[in-house]
């Protein structure tokens, strides 16, 4: 039996996420929910998609789930690369915002479902599940339960792709968020029957690319984003003493 090592309070997380979804434009609500952060959020969005596409190859036949989809920021940028994509979130207001966007965009292969512990999808029905910056808002035990559900809904040989904050010192922000130590996150992920197939650090915070982007301060200069990202890829492991936290990636496999 795993011992809970965080102080995260799920009710507090839901309240905060509902507030963000209603008070902030959908794109910012899931990134830095300070409207003044729009320019920085463009780079954050580029980094997220870059990391996901590089580490989770999608095919046109894939049925995909995003666990903790927020307002659908990533789903609306990935839905053209797969057959069907389903977003799940514990915040009903995030799901409302995502459904509103889906209606505006007239997407046909996208579905959003408000869900808590039990995932309302059939056994062995999903090829890939991805989770981006969500486990840092969940207690250890809730992650353990979610992984059991992942194992149930994934097809044999299906994969779960986890992107989450870690920090070498471990850091909790009240009862809302935790940057687990890498070994703590690994321990929680290893508590399931899914096998850890890959693990690496993919984004460093702060990053050189972000600091250049911030200095440019012109949101029309998006052509430079791939170059900044390539620079960041080269520097991800450099000077760990200056790193506040990482985005760490894990691929988990359901064995057949
Ligand atoms: C920082 S946002 C990231 C949203 C999205 N993954 C993205 O990167 O654009 C975290 C999301 O996780 C959701 N979340 C937190 N705890 C959850 C849980 N136990 N189950 C499902 N979703 C959860 C929040 O409501 C929020 O929408």
Characterise the protein shown here.
- The protein has 256 residues and is an alpha/beta fold.
- 38% of the residues lie in helices and 24% in strands.
- The protein has helices at residues 10-23, 26-29, 38-55, 75-78, 92-105, 140-153, 182-189, 208-216, 225-235, and strands at 63-67, 84-89, 110-114, 126-132, 154-166, 171-173, 177-179, 195-205, 245-253.
- Helix 1 (10-23) packs parallel to helix 5 and helix 3 packs antiparallel against helix 8.
- S-adenosylmethionine (SAM) is lined by residues 13, 17, 30, 48, 67-70, 73-74, 88-91, 94, 132-134, 137-138, 142.
- S-adenosylmethionine is lined by residues 13, 17, 30, 48, 67-70, 73-74, 88-91, 94, 132-134, 137-138, 142.
Reading off the top of the CATH hierarchy, the class is best stated as Alpha Beta
Supply Rg: 17 Å
How much strand?
Answer: 15-25%
Largest sheet: 7 strands, mixed
Structural class: alpha/beta
Q: Mean pLDDT across all residues, rounded?
A: 96
Oligomeric composition of the shown chains: single chain
Described by the principal axes of the CA atoms, the overall outline is globular
Number of helices: 9
Q: Report the order of strands and helices.
A: HHHEHEHEEHEEEHEHHE
Low-confidence segments, ≥5 residues, pLDDT <50? Answer: none
Whole-Å distance between the termini? 25 Å
Count the E strands.
9
Provide the list of bound ligands, each named once: S-adenosylmethionine
Q: Helical content, roughly?
A: 25-40%
User: Order of strands across the biggest sheet?
Assistant: 3-2-1-4-5-9-8
CATH level-4 homologous superfamily: Vaccinia Virus protein VP39
């Amino acid at each position: 039996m795993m011992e809970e090592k965080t102080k995260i309070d799920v009710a507090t997380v839901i309240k905060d996420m509902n507030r963000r979804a209603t008070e902030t434009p959908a794109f910012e609500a899931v990134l830095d929910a300070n409207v003044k952060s729009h320019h920085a959020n463009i780079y954050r969005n580029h980094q997220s998609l870059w990391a996901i596409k590089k580490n989770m190859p999608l095919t046109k036949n894939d049925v995909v789930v995003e666990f903790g989809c927020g307002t659908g920021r990533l789903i609306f940028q990935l839905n053209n690369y797969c057959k069907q994509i389903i977003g799940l979130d514990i915040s009903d207001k995030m799901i409302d915002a995502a459904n509103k966007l889906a209606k505006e965009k007239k997407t046909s292969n996208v579905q959003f479902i408000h869900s808590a512990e039990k995932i309302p999808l059939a056994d062995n029905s999903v090829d890939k599940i991805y989770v981006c910056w969500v486990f840092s808002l969940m207690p250890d035990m809730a992650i353990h339960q979610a992984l059991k559900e992942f194992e149930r809904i994934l097809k044999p040989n299906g994969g779960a792709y986890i992107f989450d904050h870690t920090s070498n010192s471990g850091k909790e922000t009240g009862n809302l968020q935790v940057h687990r130590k890498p070994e703590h996150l690994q321990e929680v992920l290893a508590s399931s029957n899914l096998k850890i197939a890959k693990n690496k650090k993919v984004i460093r915070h702060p990053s050189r690319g972000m600091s250049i982007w911030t200095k440019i301060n012109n949101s029309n200069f998006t052509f430079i984003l791939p170059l900044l990202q390539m620079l960041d890829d080269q520097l991800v492991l450099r000077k760990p003493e200056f790193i506040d936290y990482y985005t760490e990636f894990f691929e988990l496999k359901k064995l057949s």
